[in-house]
Amino acid sequence: MSKLPNVRPSIFSTMSQLASEYHAINLSQGFPNFPVDERLIEITAKLTHKNVHQYMPMAGYPPLLQKIAELTEKQYNRTVDPNTEILITAGATQGIFTAIQALIKTGDEVLVLDPSYDSYEPSILMSNGIPIRISLEDDYTVNWTTIKQACHSKTRMIIINNPHNPTGRIFTQSDIEALEGILEHYPNLLLLSDEVYEYITFEQKHISANSREKLISRSIITSSFGKSFHITGWKIGYLIAPENLMNEIKKVHQFMVFSVNSLSQVAISDYLDIVQLDEIASFYQKKRDYFKQLLTPTRLELLPCEGTYFQIASYAAISNENDVDFCKRLAKNFGVAAIPNSTFYADDTDLKHIRFCFAKTNETLEAAAKNLTSL
Ligand SMILES: Cc1ncc(COP(=O)(O)O)c(C=O)c1O
């Protein structure tokens, strides 16, 4: 008997498969198709000849932990203990899964805001927790009254994703305050704050849980070097959590992964000495603006994108089809693969919205826009 009877092949695999079958330009899955920073390649190439090929300490390469602590201090003014409060993970996905296995017990309820990243629910189900999926409003704002009403004594965790995939939105100051109000009301409630796009924000920075005094003692915060440094295939990220929660998380991590790939840990540690993190945001802001400009002649309506490398577009003016059929037709007949937003919802909410990933070369974006103009 399956432990996850309702889990189907992900829409990302389906759309990428369709893209290759129809030779469509793949703006579906969230990964860059431009070259990695040459300096990171060089660091990695040189390191392969050094003594970096054996197991790392379980929590991570100490200089990397130290640099993450310094970065957290610089970015968010939070002092983190590199020895007890940081864990290097095999991507944010493993960090999320591990944190949930460690902290969620049978029957615990976990609130998930839809549209949501697809790993949350299976991770909760694998720990015999109960996912409670609550949809954002149709304009992707959060109805905190609904969230508060869903909380009760069995609610153990709320998962947020900020900056948000797929909508590209970031939480406002009043969102964060509303969240803090709820947590204050429920002393046992934990926050899992997925901040993998923390370095990809545009007109304004997101408000990290790292910067909120009221949240820190209850928060497990995850980030992804894969997203920040255009190296999604390296699968490396980290968790930050207070020591008491981290101790529990480490108990699971040590039997799941033990320690993350040594070469990538040392390479990233060295790279952090030279990389300018604010350049990542301006790089993607240019991509966002260029993609937007390219799509102006199309009949797609673009929604605001405040962070991440995803752009939501409404095709309501073009077709009444459901978004899955629309995306299939887009790939087959117009040569562009996108993700139907309904797949991020438990109840398949269809707002006639699709998601494009603009972490692509300008040539790719231009070719996609050319095809989309004929829609
Ligand atoms: C919201 C969100 N969280 C987590 C992840 C996973 O990150 P990683 O590749 O580091 O596991 C992704 C990747 O798409 C994501 O979009």
* Whole-angstrom Rg: 20 Å
Strand order of the largest sheet: 2-8-7-6-5-3-4
Backbone structural class: alpha/beta
Strand content bin: 5-15%
Distance between the termini: 45 Å
Q: How is the biggest beta sheet arranged?
A: 7 strands, mixed
**Principal-axis shape:** globular
Q: Helix and strand succession?
A: HEHHEHEHEHEHEHEHEHHHEEHEEEH
Low-confidence stretches: none
Oligomer: single chain
Please count the helical segments.
14
Ligand roster: pyridoxal-5'-phosphate
Helix percentage range? 40-55%
Q: Tell me how many strands there are.
A: 13
Mean pLDDT: 97
Give an overview of the whole structure:
The protein is of the alpha/beta class and 375 residues long. The chain has 14 helices and 13 strands. A seven-stranded mixed β-sheet has the order 2-8-7-6-5-3-4, with helices on both faces. The protein has a four-stranded antiparallel β-sheet with strand order 9-10-13-12. Helix 2 packs across helix 11, helix 4 (91-103) packs across helix 10 and helix 12 runs parallel beside helix 14. It is globular, with a radius of gyration of 20 Å. The site of pyridoxal-5'-phosphate has 14 residues, from helix 4.
Tell me the layout of helices and strands:
Layout: H1 11-21, E1 25-26, H2 38-47, H3 62-76, E2 86-89, H4 91-103, E3 109-114, H5 120-126, E4 130-135, H6 144-150, E5 155-161, H7 173-185, E6 190-194, H8 213-216, E7 219-224, H9 225-228, E8 237-240, H10 243-256, H11 262-271, H12 278-295, E9 301-302, E10 310-314, H13 323-334, E11 336-337, E12 339-340, E13 353-357, H14 362-373
Parallel strand pairs: 1-11, 3-4, 3-5, 5-6, 6-7
Antiparallel strand pairs: 2-8, 7-8, 9-10, 10-13, 12-13
This protein binds pyridoxal-5'-phosphate.
